[in-house]
Design a protein that fits this description.
There is one protein chain. This protein is of the alpha+beta class and 196 residues long. It has a domain of 92 residues. The protein contains 8 helices and 4 strands, in the order ααααααααββββ. The radius of gyration is 32 Å and the shape is elongated. The N and C termini lie far apart (76 Å). About 8% of the residues have low confidence.
Amino acid sequence: MKRIRRLLNPKTPNGAWTPVLAGVILIATAAVAMTLVPQAQRGLSTPKRPVRIVEDNPYNDWLDGPVSYIIHPGERSAFEKLTTDEERDQFIRQFWERRNPNPGSKTNAFKEEFYRRVNFADAHFVAGYPGWKSDRGHLYILYGPPDEIQFHPSATPHPFSVWKYQHLARLGNNVTFRFVEQSGNGDYRLASPPWK
């Protein structure tokens, strides 16, 4: 075939260099490909920062559940540094006791009211995820039942609800929150949440 090609087209260069040229192209392509493959896939690198393995356990559920609305950053940091379940149990007992209006009593009114609010939110504000994760659930857990609720399910362009509180600590008097339902699945979102 090479001879026929040379006879038909005398200007075609001699094919002796073709295998060498093909080898050079193959090596260059392989070198470029190796630089594009992530180092982690080749097993050549170590992570730039330590990887924290988060186990699925009740302590993570406690920390990242509704308690996340009321725990202080310093408390969260201290809890994350604990290494044994005994330390975590002790921390949780102290966490609730610090909020107990009657320290040392057998019942903790703050804790009982907190979980009553969580249960209410889960029963009334579900919108594709647990009610405590919704904006209405978040606000209800933080501030309790509003003094007045105006509900407008047929409003246009979107249904909305307004919650009014006569007084909220750190927020003042006559505090109003407006929730708008734009998704069609009952998820009323809060405009300008106070926690953002």
